[in-house]
Write the structure tokens for this entry.
Amino acid sequence: MNAEQKARSIVPFHKTVGGRGQLAVCNWLRGKKVGDVRSAGYYCAWDFYVNDLRVEVKTARYSRKTWKVNIHRHGKLKEDVDVYIVRLEGCPLFKAAIHLVIPAPLGTKTLQITPRSLITVWAQYFNAVENLRPKAIAQTI
């Protein structure tokens, strides 16, 4: 593969599932008026700063009756963030994506979310932008 072919084969970040998810979450947060939303650097371990909290965005598509979300990076669990925002796309019965705002640490490498667990386990985190306020994080620890 020559340099030109290699350059054409690289997918721009904003066209990947994760890149589109980050952009959509950033717009969603700004629409919710949660406060100061700033993008972290490219080489940073998290994606955004929201009110000086470190936020990691995870995007998953509905497939085979479940969403699978990888929290780890290259098989290693290093949770140096304050909050995870999990964007669930392709939800049956909803046209829009679902956002779960979950305080860290989770203590697991992957999450497997089914429609039933979404209602029974994860419902408390559904659009929970109050978890993006520093007071809310301090109360959960």
User: Anything to note?
Assistant: The longest strand covers residues 53-61. Strands lie at 37-39, 48-50, 53-61, 67-70, 83-89, 98-103, 110-113.
